[in-house]
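thought: user wants a sequence for this fold. calling inverse folding tool.
action: design(structure=
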C-alpha cells in the first residue's frame, strides 16, 4: 500500500471545480488533502471560498481546511463567468452559510508555509482556476519550487481554440501573467486543456448513472451538471458540457485514461487580441524547453466510469 499523495487543490468553484473536490474527497485513501485554496475566477473570491466550504460540508469533509487567496489577477482586472456558472457559481445546489470555517490567513501564505515544511518533490498542486495563487506563492518564496512534486492543472487550448476569446481558455485568459510565471517554474507540469476536456461531455447517458446513485453528494453533482450543461450545450451545440476540472483528479487517480506529450507551452501576455493564448509547440518546431506534459486525449467513457464509481462511495 503506497502512502497517500499529499495534494493542495486550488480552485474557483464553479460546478466543475466542485465535482473535482467531490472526486478528491471520495479518494482520500489515495490523497492526503493538505488544504483547499480558493481564487477569484468563475465568480468573485468571496463566493469561491464560500462554495468550496459548502461543497466540503455537503461531502461530509468537515476536516478540510479551506483558505481564501487572491481576489484578482496579478495585473489584469478580474473577468468572471456567471453566464456559465450562474449567480452563485454553483447553481444547482442550494446555497447555505457553511459551518466549516474559513481558515485564518491568506491562501498564498498557506501554500508557501506548507511547501516550506515539506520534503523535496513531495507535494502535488492541483489548480483548476486562474493561476494567481500559485504564481504569487512562487513569486513570494521561489525556494518552494523544489518541494513541488508536480502541478496538474486545468487550462489552455491548442486545436480547440479559446472558450473565452478566440485564442484563449478561461483560466489562462483571466490571469495570463500568473500562467507565465507557473510555466517557467521548472517543475513537472501536466496541463489539461480544452483539447482534452472537450472530449469529456456530460451527456445524459453519462450523468443519468450519477443521478441513479442517489444520496446527497451524487444528487448535488447531478443537479450541478444539469445546470452546467445549459450554457455550453447551447454554445457548442454538443451532447453535454465539457467537464473540465475533474480531469485533474482523474489524471492523478488513473493517468492511463489520458494521452500526453512533452512539449513547450508559452503564454501570450502582450497582444490585446490573443492575450492568454497558450502557444503549444506540439510538433516541436522550436528549440524551446519542453516545460509541459500536454494532455491531448482522454478515454471519456473511462473517465465517467471512474467518476461514477468514486461518487458511489458516498453511499
Ligand atoms: O475553461 C474552463 C475552466 O474555466 C474551468 O476550470 C472552469 O471551472 C473555469 O474556471
Ligand atoms: Ca475552475
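)
observation: tool returned 315 residues.
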Amino acid at each position: 500500500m503506497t502512502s497517500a499523495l499529499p495534494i493542495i487543490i486550488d480552485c474557483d468553484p464553479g460546478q466543475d471545480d466542485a465535482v473535482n473536490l467531490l472526486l478528491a474527497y471520495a479518494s482520500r485513501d489515495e490523497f492526503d488533502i493538505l488544504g483547499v485554496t480558493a481564487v477569484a475566477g468563475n465568480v468573485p473570491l468571496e463566493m469561491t471560498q464560500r462554495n468550496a466550504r459548502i461543497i466540503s460540508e455537503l461531502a461530509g469533509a468537515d476536516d478540510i481546511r479551506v483558505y481564501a487567496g487572491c481576489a484578482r489577477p496579478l495585473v489584469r482586472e478580474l473577468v468572471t463567468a456567471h453566464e456559465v456558472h450562474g449567480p452563485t457559481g454553483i447553481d444547482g445546489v442550494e446555497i447555505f452559510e457553511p459551518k466549516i470555517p474559513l481558515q485564518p490567513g491568506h491562501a498564498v501564505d498557506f501554500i508557501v508555509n506548507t511547501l516550506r515544511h515539506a520534503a523535496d518533490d513531495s507535494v502535488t498542486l492541483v489548480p483548476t482556476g486562474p493561476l494567481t495563487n500559485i504564481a504569487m506563492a512562487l513569486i513570494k518564496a521561489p525556494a518552494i519550487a523544489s518541494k513541488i512534486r508536480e502541478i496538474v492543472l486545468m487550462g489552455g487550448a491548442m486545436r480547440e481554440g479559446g472558450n473565452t476569446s478566440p485564442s484563449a481558455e478561461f483560466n489562462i485568459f483571466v490571469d495570463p501573467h500568473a500562467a507565465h510565471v507557473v510555466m517557467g517554474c521548472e517543475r513537472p507540469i501536466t496541463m489539461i486543456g480544452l483539447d482534452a476536456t472537450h472530449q469529456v461531455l456530460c451527456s445524459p447517458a453519462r450523468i443519468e448513472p450519477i443521478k441513479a446513485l442517489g444520496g446527497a453528494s451524487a444528487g448535488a453533482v447531478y443537479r450541478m451538471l444539469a445546470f452546467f450543461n445549459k450554457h455550453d450545450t447551447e454554445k457548442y451545440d454538443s451532447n453535454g458540457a465539457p467537464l473540465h476540472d475533474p480531469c485533474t483528479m482523474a489524471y492523478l487517480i488513473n493517468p492511463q485514461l489520458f494521452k500526453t506529450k512533452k512539449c513547450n507551452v508559452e503564454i501570450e501576455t502582450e497582444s490585446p487580441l490573443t492575450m492568454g493564448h497558450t502557444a503549444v509547440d506540439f510538433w516541436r518546431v522550436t528549440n524551446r524547453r519542453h516545460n509541459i506534459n500536454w494532455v491531448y486525449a482522454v478515454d471519456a467513457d473511462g473517465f465517467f466510469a471512474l467518476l461514477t464509481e468514486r461518487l458511489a462511495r458516498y453511499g
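thought: summarizing for user.
answer: Here is the designed sequence. The longest strand covers residues 258-267.
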